[in-house]
């Protein structure tokens, strides 16, 4: 009896001892840790090496060289501050140092959410770039790097710039050919009038990360509830899952997904099961596969129908669909209609109106001024649009207008070009149509040379020869320095450089500028000489200051403009040139003689654009008058003229003539 009582006493003492140990372990507290300037590191954070029961492993910090660091996806960042009241931690890139030079950040950091943190307060994207040439643009901040070898790999003469844009700045908004070094999420910066020190000061302030997500996990997710974060008052709100969340849970229960996973997890650890349970699981697996295939099939069908519906409303025919599929290979950027409205300030400033639609002044987010041409869908046939984007989108020349981007969104079609402040050449040639001040003869001569160089580039400077088919004053744009730019490629065609004669099914261009071989096949095949003819007519209009088609002229000889000018020069009469100098008279005479060579009736008698430029740039004494241009072909083939249907919506007065 005494032995039994003694045994009970020993058992009671042992039980009390175990309870004391458990109570001691349960009441263990974690002392705050510290590292460098960061003191009182406590829950949910822990320093690496702290007891396992202290802090959350997802919020583990490092202490290296007496600096507190956090390991994020791009790399390790310095911890500048931890605010437990606001649930924020401020991080700084370890590559940044304060000084008179700019220390380059080690990591690119975009605006996205980390696994356990959310970025707060980001308002800008700053791009660091390495450029081979200096940039004269106030939006680009010149940087003096502390270690040039870290940022310049190709040349010691490279220039380093920073460009501050909005949060979703696109690479396409960078205007110059530069190599991007870092893309950094920043805050408190407004583009324009910034210095290197301003940028460095903001970067050294660092970024704030929120760790409210740990409260979501500990207060909501453990209870099976969804969580909503409120960063303004640093709180979280738990709520029950919505209908679709419950539906997903029900589907998983019906299919036995969770049980299936648990079952195979149980077997993988050496568990055993009955034959009946195995058969039930196999049946559930088969049902799950069948239903899963059906669900996937239905989703794919819906996705295909939505895809076909969107494609049908994106454009008018299969050619445009194929073009849109491959547009990524071109330089122009595809914009949405919403982007177009923003850049034009809801179409506030109208620049002009034509048969193609209207042109509006716009501004990109980078500050670049553009001209936005909105196309009229009732007249556009789709192919003109493809010609414009596919042709001009792949070339770049000082005398060819640059296509910045385009838009195709259902019935909204637009082309975005560089803005040309001085408009088109016709305003300075046909002075009766505008109040513009007349250009000097020397300026007109330089414009003629620029247009010629642009056409020569189209013919010989690309992998494919590009025939414009619509050279005229309306399609020559002038920038702020009156540098001419060939524009409007709605009728252009691409051909192999090996083809001397090209195939066209109908005459293309504008009356008065169309080469005769496009009407009458017996005088020669269609080639780049068609653009040479149009260029000749352009030169004659620049000299004569009037349109080449004049059906109401006093004399019938004046109707065909080249013959009229030829007669005047042949009789020793110069054009009305006012107080022109001798040099300017030479310019005009060269333009006239070269133009008369360009408008010869037969293509074989016309020079190439290279030869045309050689004559324009050469001495006047070396030029000979060509044979007189005549109308014999047109007079002998009047019966072949047919009705003229309008076919191009991108140019006013531009037509396509169908021959018999």
Strand content: 15-25%
- Domain unit count: 4
Largest sheet: 7 strands, mixed
Calculate Rg over CA atoms.
Answer: 38 Å
Overall 3D shape:
elongated
Q: Kindly report the average pLDDT value.
A: 76
Low-confidence stretches: 1-27, 262-274, 632-660
**Strands, count:** 27
Provide the CATH topology of the largest domain: Transferase(Phosphotransferase), domain 1
Query: How many helical elements?
Result: 16
Assigned CATH superfamily of the largest domain: Transferase(Phosphotransferase) domain 1
Helical percentage: 25-40%
SSE-based structural type: alpha+beta
The end-to-end span amounts to 130 Å
Class of the largest domain, according to the CATH hierarchy? Mainly Alpha
CATH architectural designation of the largest domain: Orthogonal Bundle
What is the strand arrangement across the widest sheet? 3-4-5-6-7-13-8
Q: Can you describe what's shown?
A:
The protein is of the alpha+beta class. It has four domains: 177 residues, no CATH class; 66 residues, no CATH class; 99 residues, Phosphorylase Kinase, domain 1 (2-Layer Sandwich); 232 residues, Orthogonal Bundle (Transferase(Phosphotransferase), domain 1). It is built from 16 helices and 27 strands. The strands form eight sheets. It has a seven-stranded mixed beta sheet, with helices on one face. A six-stranded mixed beta sheet has the order 16-20-21-19-18-17, with helices on one face. It has a four-stranded antiparallel beta sheet with strand order 10-11-9-12, with helices on one face. The N terminus and C terminus are likely disordered.
């Amino acid at each position: 009896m005494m032995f039994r009582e003694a045994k009970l006493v020993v058992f009671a003492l042992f039980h009390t001892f175990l309870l004391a140990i458990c109570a001691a372990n349960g009441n263990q507290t974690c002392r705050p840790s510290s590292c460098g300037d960061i003191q009182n590191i406590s829950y949910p954070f822990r320093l690496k090496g702290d007891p396992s029961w202290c802090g959350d492993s997802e919020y583990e910090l490092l202490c290296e060289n007496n600096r507190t660091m956090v390991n994020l996806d791009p790399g390790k960042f310095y911890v500048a501050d931890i605010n437990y009241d606001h649930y924020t931690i401020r991080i700084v890139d370890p590559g940044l140092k304060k000084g008179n030079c700019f220390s380059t950040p080690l990591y690119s950091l975009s605006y996205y959410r980390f696994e356990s943190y959310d970025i707060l307060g980001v308002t800008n994207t700053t791009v660091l770039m390495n450029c081979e040439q200096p940039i004269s643009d106030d939006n680009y901040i010149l940087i003096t790097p502390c270690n040039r070898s870290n940022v310049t790999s190709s040349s010691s003469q490279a220039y380093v710039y920073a460009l501050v844009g909005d949060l979703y700045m696109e690479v396409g908004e960078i205007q110059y050919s530069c190599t991007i070094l870092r893309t950094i999420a920043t805050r408190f910066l407004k583009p324009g009038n910034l210095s290197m020190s301003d940028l460095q000061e903001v970067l050294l302030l660092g970024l704030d990360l929120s760790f409210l997500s740990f409260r979501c996990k500990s207060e909501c997710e453990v209870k099976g509830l969804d969580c909503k974060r409120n960063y303004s008052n640093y709180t979280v709100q738990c709520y029950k899952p919505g209908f679709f969340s419950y539906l997903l849970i029900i589907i998983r229960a019906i299919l036995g997904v969770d049980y299936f996973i648990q079952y195979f997890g149980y077997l993988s650890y050496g568990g055993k099961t009955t034959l009946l349970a195995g058969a039930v699981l196999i049946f559930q697996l088969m049902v799950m596969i069948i239903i899963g295939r059906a669900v996937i099939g239905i989703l794919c069908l819906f996705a295909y129908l939505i895809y076909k519906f969107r494609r049908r409303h994106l454009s008018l025919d299969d050619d445009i669909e194929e073009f849109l599929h491959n547009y990524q290979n071109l330089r122009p950027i595809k914009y949405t209609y919403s982007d177009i409205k923003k850049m034009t300030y809801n179409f506030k400033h109208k620049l002009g109106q034509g048969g193609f639609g209207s042109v509006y002044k716009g501004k990109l987010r980078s500050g670049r001024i553009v001209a936005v041409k909105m196309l009229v869908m009732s007249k556009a046939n789709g192919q003109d649009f493809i010609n414009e984007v596919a042709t001009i989108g792949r070339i770049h020349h000082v005398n060819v207008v640059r296509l910045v981007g385009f838009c195709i969104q259902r019935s909204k079609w637009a082309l975005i070009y560089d803005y040309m402040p001085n408009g088109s050449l016709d305003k300075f040639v046909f002075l009766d149509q505008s109040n513009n001040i007349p250009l000097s003869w020397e300026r007109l001569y330089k414009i003629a040379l620029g247009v010629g160089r642009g056409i020569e580039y189209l013919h010989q400077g690309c992998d494919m020869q590009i025939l414009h088919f619509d050279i005229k004053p309306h399609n020559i744009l002038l920038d702020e320095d009156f540098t001419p730019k060939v524009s409007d490629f709605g009728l252009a065609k691409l051909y192999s450089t090996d083809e001397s004669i090209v195939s066209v099914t109908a005459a293309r261009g504008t009356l008065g500028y169309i080469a005769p071989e496009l009407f009458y096949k017996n005088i020669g095949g269609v080639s780049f000489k068609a653009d040479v003819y149009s260029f000749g007519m352009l030169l004659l209009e620049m000299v004569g200051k009037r349109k080449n088609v004049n059906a109401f002229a006093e004399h019938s000889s004046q109707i065909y403009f080249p013959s009229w000018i030829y007669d005047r020069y042949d009789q020793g009469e110069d054009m009305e040139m006012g107080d022109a100098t001798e040099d300017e008279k030479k310019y005009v005479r060269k333009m006239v003689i070269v133009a008369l060579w360009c408008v010869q009736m037969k293509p074989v008698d016309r020079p190439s654009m290279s030869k045309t430029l050689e004559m324009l740039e050469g001495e006047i004494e070396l030029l000979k008058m060509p044979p007189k241009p005549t109308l014999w072909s047109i007079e002998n083939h009047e019966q072949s003229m047919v009705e003229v249907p309008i076919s191009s919506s991108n140019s006013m007065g531009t037509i396509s003539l169908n021959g018999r």
